[in-house]
Amino acid sequence: MGIRLQEGNDQICWSLDGERDFSVAGTRRNIDAFLHTGSDMGTLWCNAVPKKVNVFAWRVMLDQLPTRYNLSCRGMEIKSILCPTCGVGMETLSHALFASCFAKEVWRNIYRWCNISMLIGESFCEWSEWCDLLPTRNNRRLKMQVIGLATCWMIWRFRNSVLFDAGRMRKSDIVHNIILLSFSWLAHRNKKCKVSWVD
């Protein structure tokens, strides 16, 4: 096998997607196709939340957060793989964010606040799929995405507070903080979405 040189100008070509020009959208399609084989779930990127929350959501979708179960699967020796917030179930990502007693109580309060009468799901993917089915009128889908991301974010922060900060974050403040975060992100990070405290 040899290298064949051709006459003409040198150029750099992007060959991952068959197109000659590089694009961020093409790169994202390639990453999604590579990382989500067997799944039609793409990445969730919501401009109404901070970048660190989007990265957090991406890591949740890939099950790449350092839960006790994930750490033990990677060979780390841990005293216990039980959930630090409830002490009952094995701390998988779905358990920590949706299925633990603490997470269920937070989600119940959020559903009540949003006038949602049904259980949406017990995983981030189920919740994300539910959001995708919502109508886009009145920014309902965007609002629910932001509220859900704020909920997962605050549940994870509370979990970390229990583990690393002697539980300085109070359980009683979680739902209030989720409401404040959601309102702040929707009001200040998205000019198209008009929100008020009544909404």
UniProtKB/TrEMBL annotation:
It holds the Pfam family zf-RVT. The keyword Lyase does not apply. GO terms for molecular function: RNA-directed DNA polymerase activity. Keywords: Nucleotidyltransferase, RNA-directed DNA polymerase, Transferase. Residues 40-107 form the Reverse transcriptase zinc-binding domain. This is RNA-directed DNA polymerase, eukaryota.
